[in-house]
Every structure is written in structure tokens, then in C-alpha cells.
From TrEMBL, chain A:
GO cellular-component term (any): plasma membrane
Species this protein is from: Pelotomaculum propionicicum
Name of protein: Penicillin-binding protein A
Gene3D superfamilies: DD-peptidase/beta-lactamase superfamily, Penicillin-binding protein 2a (Domain 2)
GO function terms (MF aspect): penicillin binding; peptidoglycan L,D-transpeptidase activity
Top-rank lineage group of the source organism: Bacteria
Cited InterPro entries: Beta-lactam/transpept (IPR050515), Beta-lactam/transpept-like (IPR012338), PBPA_dimer (IPR054120), PCN-bd_Tpept (IPR001460)
Domain Penicillin-binding protein transpeptidase per the UniProt entry, residue ranges: 154-456
Pfam family, one: Transpeptidase
UniProtKB/TrEMBL annotation, chain B:
Protein name: Putative FtsW-like protein
Pfam families, per database record: FTSW_RODA_SPOVE
Species per Swiss-Prot/TrEMBL record: Pelotomaculum propionicicum
Any one GO molecular-function label of the UniProt entry: lipid-linked peptidoglycan transporter activity
Designated gene of the protein: rodA
Keywords associated with the record: Cell shape, Membrane, Transmembrane, Transmembrane helix
GO biological process: cell division; regulation of cell shape
Bilayer-spanning residue ranges: 19-36, 43-61, 73-90, 102-123, 129-147, 168-186, 206-222, 229-245, 251-271, 292-313, 333-351, 363-387, 399-420
Membrane topology annotation: Multi-pass membrane protein
Lineage: Bacteria, Bacillati, Bacillota, Clostridia, Eubacteriales
Cell compartment(s), UniProt: Membrane
Superkingdom in the source lineage: Bacteria
GO CC annotation terms, alphabetical: cell division site; plasma membrane
Amino acid sequence: MKNNILKLGILMLGLFAILVVYLSYLQVIRGPSIAASPYNHRFQEYEAQVQRGTIYDARGTVLARTEFTDGKGKRVYPEGRNTAHLLGYISEMYGRAGLESAYDRYLLGREGADRIRNYVNKILDRQQSGGDMVLTLDAGLQELAVDLLGGRRGAVVLLDPRSGAVRAMATSPSFDPNKLDTIWNSLVADEDSPLLNRATQGAYPPGSTFKVVTAAGALAEKPDLAAKTFNCPGFIEVNGYKLMDTDAHGDVDLKKALAVSCNTTFAQLGVGLGPEGFERACKAFGLTQDPGLGLPARAGTMASVDKLHPAELASSAIGQGEVLVSPLQMALVAAAIANKGVIMRPYLVDNVKDSMGEVILQTAGRKWLTATTPQIAATIKEGMLEAVRYGTATAAAVSGTQVAGKTGSAQNPHGETHAWFIGFAPASQPTLAVAVIVENSGSGGAVAAPIASRLIAAATAKGY
Amino acid sequence: MASSAINKLAGSRATERNLLLLAAPYTLAGMLALYLGSQRAGYQSLILGPAAVAAFFLVHLYWKKVGYKGDSYLLPITAVLSATSLVVLYRLNPAYGMRQFIWILIGLGVLLLTSRLLVDFRFLGDYKYIYALAGLIALILPIFFGQEHGGAKSWLDFGLFQFQSSEFVKILVVLFLASFLTENKAVLSAGTRSLGWLSIPGPQEWVPLVAMWGVSLLLLVFQRDLGTALIYFGTFLAMVYVATARVSYVVFGLGLFTAGAAASYQLFGHVRSRVAIWLNPWPYADTAGYQLIQSYFAIGSGGVLGTSLGQGYPDFIPLVHSDFIFSAICEELGLLGGAAIIVLFMFYVFRGIKISMNTKDEFAALAASGFTALLGLQAFIIIAGVTGLLPLTGVTLPYVSYGGSSLVANFILMGLLLNISHEAAADL
């Protein structure tokens, strides 16, 4: 019987050991993400006691601060609708979102030395305070981007291709976060979805801007395509499916095909890539992944490999078909060409301090993906330069700065084409990469390229 | 001989004294931290700590004086668990802390009485059918006169205090099974007739067992006290296995359990909803899953070191002082505190198993392993429940949760374990 008792003992101790392992997993690994849930009332309790940290842009402009009136703290967003989707909100009724929610622990002084400091402050009945946060964003450029969208549905992303630092990320329509509690119901009911961050969550056909990806994929498979000449009669037939081009472009090389946005050439390249090659090209540019900005984002989608028959390939290669991506992802495509084929991970938070001003979190540029080789990037850059010089993107030109770009006019079931532009500047040493989309507004060259031009000019003037 | 040296040490109770000396600063530091850290904690918090320490030392000194040879480790383990209970409950609500303190004193008194009056526990083996009857009555009464607490209708209201009969019936269950299994062990182990490849005992041997199990289970289903049913059943299987070493009984039992679980899943909405919440609580975050989600938040906010005493918000969890006290510990004392509680229960189980193995008497060994399995299972089931490892079933965490019935019953259980070890040591 002793033996049986021993076995029972081992079984019971084993059960408890499992419990310890599970508790460690739950509390240490899963814990922080569970506790960050908007259902957790703890943050509202901290909110009532803690002077929440201030959020600044890269130049020291206040983007969010807490104002006390009659001992009750209220969060104020001086930039209002311009930064609503990035900063998010903290509402007792509608929960928490955006960077405010993601960095709650820092802003409320629950990290690093602040933990102990605020513990002591609480015991001694002194004011507890959180740390400040500095973004990479420039409030002036952000405001300009919002103004340039002019209330039309669309988005603008401007980032530094060398580091991934986001300088502007506008989405329209937006909302005033200072009035959230009174306008919430109308926001939810609005057909234009003002709560949606189009820059990261949008799902758009990329149109001809996608030809950059197709070109990189085709050159990776067959480097000699760079010197080849294609003939464009103004249409192409793939398996009985006739794809019309905007014009009969005649004999073009790859650079010129990019400059004049020749559908015939890129449809051929897409068919030549085949389903696997096409998928490889998309994945190389990270189009099927969440870039990890720290805000809700939609990973791009495309037709599955077994559905990529030649006709689908031809239209996917020119950014129609089933490829759906966000403006942030297309800005990163431009950044890849600008940065010699390497995509840096995009980020919005430059640093976070504790309540005494010590930096406790500092973001450094980190490589995300190698999208293509420096040679291929250089070839495509030539084509994008020609597009601005004499092709479809002449409206993107900026005096004094050489801009490289690619337009797109994406057909969609909702009316007029979406106007797209992606590009970078200055072409020799790029410090800015941009993506612009204005929904159902016409051609990329006429609508999106001028917005990029204004934005690049302003950013260059500010020294970015 | 090593074992006799250990027993000699146990006789002198020096180990018990040394370990209690370790438990004392733990208790005092906890109450002091509450006094310093919170405006709500009055001067009582400075009295409760020393008083609780003194009470445990008095029990120790009394045992030393009368030459009691019971195990030296259980009292210190219980002292640390009770101290944690006192500190955490006082932090949640000083009134709970005060009442729990009184219950700890009553529990220690009952423990002394058990070690004195029931020291010749063997006579307890003679009344098994009386236990069965008493247990049945105690379980039936709440169905007609009971109060409902947290979905379980297992409380009797005596005006001055409420009484959860199932906490005491569990001791009777173990005594009944120990006695019955000792008497019928040979027959149950060998079987008297064969059913093909399987030899089974005759109905006169197993019918009382299965009947007792079935009746208690049915009653618990009517009381909706799933946790207690699970504990009774697990203890039942553990004891049958210890007595007979027949895995087939365990397999048969688990089969019955699976059938019972499937049937109650089909029959009872509250069982279905428990399972659904366990699988994914988030859709029910504002409704039936609220309590579990709040428990998750508390545990998740704790991290490794915890928020420290008084700095968390465990009171967001409904019923945190009873079933969910472990989550409060995890939030404020962190993973280290939560794991420490689990390790204390491991020590407890280890001592219980040791006591069971050291006794030469079959009834005593069965009773000791039954008590150990009972207490260990109860701790496991509620900790696994509040952390989401198993579906939540409301039972108390022994010695830690708020509540007199549970505390007193568990002190009696501990007294009986100690008496068994006392007899084994005295025999040497």
C-alpha cells in the first residue's frame, strides 16, 4: 500500500508543479497583454490619481496633455483631428485606443523607477506622475498633410527611409478626440468610417504604384530584363482576356515602361513571374505582413497561389486584381527603393521618459526586411526619376529637390479611380519616402502627385 | 536510523518552534506594511499580527508540554497560510480581517481539542454507517433550508453565522471510505467473480461504495456545488486506488466521471456556461465571464514581484475574499507570492503523504492519504479555476479564503493528520 500512497503523492505534487509552470506563463508572458485590455478598469483608477505624461512631437509641440480643472483631470489634444488616429483616446465610456492605450504603463508612471517613486508618492499622499513621450511626428507636416487631403477620403504617409521614423501619417475623414464622448454615436454611424485609420488599416488596390514591386520581382528572377525592350501595341491578350492600355507606348525599356506606366509591359512581366515568383515579390516587400508600427494595422492580402492563373497575374501585376494593401505598406515600398532595397521597421515613438525626465525607452532604426538588391533598386529608381521628369508623375516635381515617384490610378467598384502616388526625395540621398492616396478622385498624376510635391517641399524646407 | 532521528526531533518539537520563528516575522511584516501603507488600516492591524503569532506559539508550547508527537511541519505551514489569509483579508477589508482572526483562534482551539480528544482516532473507524447517514443528512438539509451563495446552495443559516455543511461532510467522507475500504480491501483487490478477463468483486462490496458516491454526487448536483463534487470524487478515486492498487477502478471511475460530466453538460445550463467561459471568457467579459476576466486582469497586473500590498485593485473581482483570494495574492504579491502559496501546499501534501506512509495501520494510512488528497485537490481545483487552467468551480482555498466553516473543518482535518502521525511516532 505504501507504494500506492507514494504514487498518489507524486501525482499530486506533479499537479501543483504544472500549476506553477502555468501561473508563470500566465503572469509573466501573457500578463502584460491581458492587463492592457480596454476592459481593465485599473487604468481608469490610475488616471484619477496620476498626472498623466505629456506627448510631444519631434519639435516639442504638445500633442496631448492633461489639464486639471477642480481637481479632475481631462485629456486635451491641441492638434485635435490631425492626430486623432495616432494618439487614440482614453474614454471612460468608449475605452482606450492608439498610442495613449499602447503606452499607458509609461504615461501613468507604472514602469521603471516610476513604479517605486509612485508607490512612495501614494503612501505619502503626494501627487503621482507619469512619464512624457516624444514622437517622431512633425505636427506642422501632419497638419499640412491633413489640409492637403482637404476632407476627401484618403491618407498620407511620410517617413524617413533611413530609419523608419514616421514624420506624418494623416487619414481623412477624421474626428475631434476632445469631443469624443458627445460625437461617438455619429462617428460609429458615419458611412465614411472616420474612426478607421486609413493609413494603416485601409485595404486599397494599389494600381500602377504596384509596378515597382512587379519590376523588382521580375528583375530578381531575370536580371537581363533591365536591358530588354518591350513592344506595346496598346493592349495585351492573356488567355483570351484583353487588357487595355492607356496608350500604344511602342518600344519601351523597363525604365521607360515605369515612367509612362505601361500596362502591357508589366502584365507580361507578371505572367512571366508565375504564381510563386509573384508571391515571392509581394512577400519580399512585406505586403502580406503587419509592419509592426504599434497601431492597429491591416496586413495586405493577395490571391492565393493556386488562384493566380495568367489572367489574374496580368491584372495583379499592374495593381488591380485581388491585391489589397494599406498606404503605409506602399510608403514602405517607396522606402525600400530609396534605401537601396532595405526596409527599416516604421516607428512613431522616438523616446519615452520617466516622470523625472530620464529616458527609459529609446527607439533606434531597426532593419525590417531586405526587399531587393541595391542594383535592382537603382534601376527602378531611374525609372521613377524618369516618371517625374517626363512621365505620369511630373506634378510631383519640387524645385531644388530631385523627386523619384510612381503614380497609380486604381480602378475600384466604388466609382472614379483612386489617385495614388508613391515616391522619395532627394533622389541622390533620400531622406523622405511618401505614399498618398485620395479615394475616387481621379488620376494619380493629377490628384495625388501634387500633394506629395507640396509635402516634400515643406519637409525639405524644415530640414528633414 | 535516519527516520527515528527525525521522529525524535519531532518529539522535541524544536523544528516546529524554529519554523514558527520564521513564520512570525512574515506575519508581523505583513501587518506592519498594511498599517504603514494604508489610511484605512487602524491600530488593530498592529495587534492582530502579534496576537496571531502568539496563538500559534501557544499551540506549539501546549503540545510540547504534553509531549505530543504529531508532525512538526504542518503547524508552521498552516501558520504561514493563515498569516497570508489574515494580511490579505485585512487589506481587502479590515472587517473581514478581524472576523478571520477570530475564526483562526477558533480553528486553533478546535485543533487543540482534536489533538486532545481524538488522539485515539481509531475508534472513529467503528461508526462508518453513522457517518454515511450524518453526511447524507448534512448534505440534504441545505437543499430544503439552504442559502444560495455564488450559485451554490450549500449553506445553512444559523442566524449568528452561516454554516457550509459540505466542508465538514468531506471529513466524514474520508473516514467512511477509510473504514469501509480497510474492511473490504482484500475482496475489492482480488475480486470474487470474474467477468471475462476482468475479475470483479461481488455487489455487496461495491454497491455501498458506488451508492455513496452516486448519492453525494446527486446531492451536489442539486446544490450546484460542482467544485465540491469534483473534490469528493477525486478523493474517492485516490482512496480506492491506494487501497486496491487497481488501475481498472480508476479507469472505471474516470469513465463514470466523463459520463457524468457529459450528462450534466447536456442537462444544466450553468455547467454549459462555465465551460464556455473557460474556453473563451472574452465574449462574456461584461456578463457571466466578468469574474474570471477580472481575475485575469488582477493576475496579469501582478507581474513577477506584484504591485505590493495595498497598491493593486483586487477588489475589482467579485467575491475576491473567498474563492478568488488567490488572484488577489497574485496581483499584490506577484508570481513569487502566488508560487509560494502553491509551494506551501506542496509541502503540506508532502507531509501528508509522509504521514500516510509512516503509519503501519491500514485504516490510519488510508485516512491520512484521503485527507491529503482532499486538501491537495481542493487547493488545486480552486487555483486552477481562478487562473483559467480548469473550468471555474467555486470552492475555498484551504486556510486562506475567508470563511469559518472552511477554516474550522480544515483545522480538524489537520488535527486528524497530526494524530495519525502522533500514533506512528509513539509506536516506535
